[in-house]
Amino acid sequence: MNQKPAVSLNRDYMPTLPAALVIGDGQSGLLSAKALTDIGIAVTMVKTRPDGRTLHCSAPDFDRQGFEKSLRSVLQEVELVEPQGAVSMRRMGDDFEVRFGARNVRTFGCVFFTSGADMTTVPSDLPEGVAAVSPDRVPAPGTKVAFLLDYISPSSPAAGLTAIRQAIDNAASGGASFVIMKHAPVAHLFGEALYEDAKRAGVEFYRFGETLPTVRPRPTDPSKDSGMCISVVDVVEHGDPVTLEVDRLFYAGAPDASSVMPLAKEVLVNDVDEEGFLLSSSVHCHSGRSFANGVFAVGECTGELDLIRTAAQAAAAAARARSWMVRACARKEAEAVRFTDACIRCMTCLRLCPHNAISFVAGAGRSTVTASAAACEECGVCVSECPRLVLDLVFFPEAAIESFVDEASRIHGSRPVAVYGCQRSPGRAASRIGLPPDVLFLTVPCAGRISESVLWATMAAGVQGILVVGCHHGNCASNNGTDWAEARVTAALEKLGVPTGMQPPVQYASVAANEEARFSRIVRDFCRAVRGETT
Amino acid sequence: MDSHAQPSVVIVGGGIAGLSVAKCLSDNGLSCTLIERENQLGGHVRSWACMATDRCLRCFCCTVEDLIDVVESSERVSVLTGCELESLERPGTNSFRVQVRNATNGDRQPVEAAAVVIAAGFTPYDPSEKVFWGYGVHRGVVTLQELDTLVRRDDLAGFVGESDEPLKMAFFQCVGSRDRSIGADYCSQYCCKAALRMALRLRKDKPDWEITIFYIDLQVAGKFAGSLLSLAEEKQIRLIQGVPGEIVPREDGTLEILREHKGVNVREIYDKIVLSVGQHPLPDVSRLSSLAGLETDRFGFLTAAGTQDPCRTRVDRVYVAGTVGGPKDIEQTVEHAGRTAAAVLADLNGSERTQQ
Ligand code: SF4
Ligand code: SF4
Ligand code: SF4
Ligand code: SF4
Prior knowledge:
The structure holds two protein chains of two kinds.
Chain A: E1 20-23, H1 27-38, E2 43-46, H2 64-72, E3 79-81, E4 87-92, E5 95-100, E6 104-108, E7 110-113, E8 116-118, E9 131-132, E10 144-148, H3 157-172, E11 176-181, H4 191-200, E12 204-207, E13 214-217, E14 228-232, E15 242-246, E16 248-251, E17 256-260, H5 262-267, E18 295-297, H6 307-330, E19 337-339, H7 348-352, E20 358-361, E21 368-371, H8 381-385, E22 391-393, H9 398-410, E23 417-422, H10 426-431, E24 439-444, H11 452-460, E25 465-470, H12 481-496, E26 506-510, H13 516-530
Parallel strand pairs in A: 1-2, 1-7, 2-3, 7-18, 9-16, 10-11, 10-16, 11-12, 23-24, 23-25, 25-26
Antiparallel strand pairs in A: 4-5, 5-6, 8-17, 13-14, 14-15, 19-22, 20-21
Helix pairs in contact in A: 1-6, 3-4, 9-11
Chain B: E1 8-12, H1 16-27, E2 32-36, H2 63-73, E3 77-81, E4 83-92, E5 95-102, E6 108-118, E7 123-124, E8 141-143, H3 144-152, H4 157-160, E9 168-175, H5 191-205, E10 210-215, H6 225-234, E11 238-241, E12 247-249, E13 255-261, E14 264-270, E15 272-277, E16 279-280, H7 285-292, E17 318-320, H8 330-348
Parallel strand pairs in B: 1-2, 1-6, 2-3, 6-17, 8-15, 9-10, 9-15, 10-11
Antiparallel strand pairs in B: 4-5, 5-6, 7-16, 12-13, 13-14
Helix pairs in contact in B: 1-2, 1-8, 5-6
């Protein structure tokens, strides 16, 4: 492709984009580096371990050797760093300041975590000799092998499909293959065909239910081989337990969250899920995106073992990383949060910001705390939690709330109900329905902006009730803005001391943007309840 | 002023995939033209419901609202709703002339494009041909999409009536999927999760309903999806292996099914049965594929370059995004669309080394 590009990406924007840091040189790291260099971003890659773990792919047209070769070729285009000592990092304005050991300090425009999560952990209650399914470990041809899926917790479908693929190959080589599972993994376009192929190839499937299969070493000579006996109750046959004796048992599991890099968990505090993988279970954190703007996570460390999906994650994250850096360039001079001199540098805001937008700049005279206008999403969590009340949002200043409260107090004779709703969910829902005339609705950037002091001021204005509406938990675009809103409502009610059985004058609710009908019902019911009307 | 004078990326389809591509490309400084056949953006997802219980269950539906807002307010995206792709010519190696036709008034509009992304989506399977389930005949049998629309309108009563009697409801999985007899021997990948979420959503308001999911194999892996299974068990959703082969209406309007249990046939009565229908190719996918010079696979989905390059196609600068290339849930669609956008960026940036 030597022609002049038909569309120049850099036409309107900036000179050059800053470089990206990819932490991890396994397959996920290489996929990320390739996706980044493909769209013109320079990459520095940190070596984290000598071995590359192998992602699963069972697609019939997949050429693993060709793939691995082309993946390794990206190494010629990246700068490879072997850190001496621990790596640490922090946000510095729009960029990230990364320390490789004591001396080497560098600046990057975005960071990709791709390192970690062991894919080969076998549950400790399975006997020694049970091995994890891996694309690199093919059973000896012609042997009797079993694959165990969904043991204790559901298997990663990618590992399950590898098991089925290897079961077919083993059967074709004259061996006997058994797959013991709760659910056949078929969730790929080729998955059903692979499953059907396996049945045709003579692979035997056993489906267990409540009763977990039991595994013990084969009695013959446990010291000499890895043979196993597996007892399984098949829910389709409903018979007695069947005991299978095999030369080798492979376990298809899920990656081990405990092996995720601690640095990643430190930087992505808001993006660690219940199990300990990176990227939280919020709807906003997927395809490599995290709440910490400019930080991405790809592959096993996010719990993903599938090569096709990891490659998509890497490419999608690279495109997002690029647009993040474009945004950072465009908003260099912008201001999203205003700090005043009264700041005591307590770091509350820095600690609580869901988007990792705030940085601490140590200065010779006076150190300062600032927010990156590119990373800030204007959730207002910092504004509401700053103990010195020194912060304000530029685009949604305190004054906007004050004039809303003034309006409420002007018409307080009609005992209005005040509704605060974030723009993302209730705000959109409200735009599609009509609210009753005695309901005053204020759209705020995020429910996290509604501080306790806003609640007290609104009550003082003489309203009949206050309804604070955010996104559903796990759906807040600023991760915990809606949780903050609920906590403040609860705190206010505790101070008010509403007797049990009485309708509290302040209430929290959550809706989604597509729940206009439900939102309208919630507002109606609240108005009725605070006015003491019966339904 | 001609806003289309400068070459842009033409995206065919304004559902979640097309919107995601448009957002990603415009965020990166490219101009796009988004062509949508319907009069509004959003595709299927626009009529689906929120499945949140005491927390978001990650169905991803509401994210379409974010995307629509971003795309409609972006200076770089011009949105043509109520319009169809009529023809696609290639005057130069790296330029396309796309003819867009307004379905209402027949007006034609040429658009110059540097790349074309097909993100036209899927069609939900119509289960009427499966006469033994009686969809379209028995009043109590609906598709999951129809139930979604009712929940979206906060109007479950319109379907189940005002009575407070606890109801018995069942979901049948793999309807129109994993079915060789209709040439659909693939998993549609979203319906297990969608049915589990719907069951949990119904449970929130209807603690005393008996809700059963009849499945072949539950596909619930993926971030957070795994916990749907334990949630379902905790909330007493019955999960039963094997999908009953027949629905027989009874005089009182209830529905009778037979299922095998420990080798014997058991009769069960349900008030409502929901068919979790799969994703099928668009009815006019062959028109699209021949316009763009692409091929379809044996199921009828547009063929991409291959497993290692699932967003490019055999035609240079023509891409696929989302379910037009095969079934996906919303999360996978957004991910796939992100990869498509990255491929477009890479190719237009000229920095792309030829793959494979
Ligand atoms: S929370 Fe307030 S006082 Fe504390 S560092 Fe931030 S701006 Fe300064
Ligand atoms: S408004 Fe929200 S995103 Fe912006 S700096 Fe404050 S806490 Fe961070
Ligand atoms: S359940 Fe779905 S629609 Fe509801 S908030 Fe979560 S992602 Fe949005
Ligand atoms: S997702 Fe579940 S219901 Fe849908 S086709 Fe696959 S196995 Fe069947």
